[in-house]
């Protein structure tokens, strides 16, 4: 999107809306030990997070995806629990960027 500020805003706002839903989906899947859903949604969120520069969130999703694919529910569940706090940090940074 380069230096197109309106497009940056739309992209970042859409990322935040989608990420909120994706993290909720991961949390719900965690309550039923649905590793395929956890891994699949983490994969999608990983890519989107890295696209907008949310590298910590993307890295956590990568680890969650790997844990889910290897059948390690304990690790996947523990990582899923960290996602809301990481999204809150990401949201704050994006809002700071959009305000400037």
Radius of gyration: 14 Å
Instruction: Name the average pLDDT.
Output: 96
Shape: elongated
SSE order in H/E notation? HHHH
Strand % is: under 5%
**Regions with pLDDT < 50 over 5+ consecutive residues?**
none
- Based on DSSP secondary structure assignment, what is the total number of beta strands? 0
Largest sheet: none
Please describe what this structure looks like:
This protein is an all-alpha fold. Helix content is 86%, strand content 0%. It contains four helices and no strands. It has helices at 5-31, 35-51, 55-69, 73-99. The longest helix has 27 residues, at 5-31. It is elongated.
Using brief descriptors, characterize the structure shown:
single chain; 100 residues; elongated
What would you say about this model in short?
The model has no long low-confidence stretch (mean pLDDT 96). It is elongated, with a radius of gyration of 14 Å. Helices cover 86% and strands 0% of the residues.
Write the layout of secondary structure elements.
Elements lengths: L4 H27 L3 H17 L3 H15 L3 H27 L1
Helix pairs in contact: 1-2, 1-4, 2-3, 3-4
């Amino acid at each position: 999107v380069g230096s197109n500020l309106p497009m940056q805003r739309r992209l970042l706002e859409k990322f935040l809306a989608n990420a909120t839903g994706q993290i909720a989906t991961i949390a719900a899947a965690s309550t039923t030990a649905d590793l395929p859903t956890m891994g699949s949604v983490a994969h999608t969120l990983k890519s989107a997070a890295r696209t907008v520069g949310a590298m910590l969130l993307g890295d956590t999703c990568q680890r969650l995806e790997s844990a889910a694919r290897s059948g390690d529910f304990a690790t996947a569940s523990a990582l899923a629990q960290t996602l809301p706090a990481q999204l809150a940090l990401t949201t704050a940074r994006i809002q700071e960027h959009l305000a400037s």
